Amino acid sequence: MLGQAKISAFFSPK
Amino acid sequence: MFEARLLQGSILKKALEGIRELITSGNWECSSAGISMQGMDPSHVALTVLMLQNDLFDQFRCDRNVTLGLNHATFSKILKCAANDDIITLKAEDQPDECNLLFQSANDDKTSDFIIKLTDIDQETLGIPDTEYAATVKVPSVEFQRICRDLSQFGDTIIISVKKGCVEFSGTGEIGSAKIALKESGNVDDDEKVSVEMDKDTPCSLSFASRYLNYFTKATSLSDTVTLQLCPEHPLVVSYDIGDNGSLKYYLAPKIEE
Predict the structure, then answer these.
(1) Residues contacting residue B196 through CB under 8 Å, at least 6 positions apart
(2) Which residue in B122, B128, B238 has the most chain A C-beta atoms within 10 A of its own C-beta, making it the best mutation to test that interface?
(3) Cβ–Cβ gap B126/A2 under 8 Å
(4) What secondary structure does DSSP assign to B131-165, as a single string?
(5) What is the CA radius of gyration of chain B?
(6) For the segment B6-64, what is each residue's pLDDT rounded down to a tens digit?
(7) Most C-beta atoms within 10 A of its C-beta, which of B37, B184, B217, B238?
(8) Residue (of B93, B103, B98, B77) closest to B17 by Cα position
(9) What are residue B74's DSSP bridge partners?
(10) How far apart are CA B51 and CA B54, in angstroms?
(11) Complex ipTM > 0.90
């Protein structure tokens, strides 16, 4: 089963 | 004082078409280097980054960094009042609460003046780490748009797979399944051609939400070519170049095994 990842899992605030 | 004059006003119109359905409002950061804007969709699945370098404008002045907090629905309504061949000038004071938009017709017989009120947008800027992508694929942007549209009929997920010399897009759903493969062309300088570059020749395959890919293709008119960059378990990068002096990039988080 595929779940949608979020951008926050990859990129952090500057 | 900020003032930027864009001879090819249609660039701004096209860029906003690629943004407005994904990001309700955004901070357009103006500096001496140009204008940049980044934002996420409400579900935080896609990050959109617009860069318009100062060289894209025939006149560009930015004495101090200025943030234009723009509601994209309003911005889009105003830009729709500009003809495709209009010259567009953006103007704002140093600490603005409004932005002035001036449209001049190509033969200078009509000028339209608009003021858009700015909003305070509390938004974090994300740092995008340097990534060595396993695959970089260039395809005609119209072809990519068509593939995304066609595969959306089969389900809400599109799998993008890259192997040597070939990129494959596939979708599966209740009505059936589809697989569209594009082979690398000989002459990669031509915008009509497909190029596939791979790091270490390792095949790479990732799943993405078709809804977002279709949002990205609203930017198709910005460029004849679109670049896709893939890396296992990383966001997909979908880039539309705006001439040599700008770009509209989308970062889409993949679907992963739960």
Answers:
(1) B135, B136, B137, B162, B164, B165, B166, B167, B184
(2) B128
(3) no
(4) ---SEEEEEEHHHHHHHHHHHHTT-SEEEEEEETT
(5) 19
(6) 999 999 999 999 999 999 999 999 999 999 999 999 999 999 999 999 999 999 999 99
(7) B238
(8) B77
(9) none
(10) 10
(11) yes
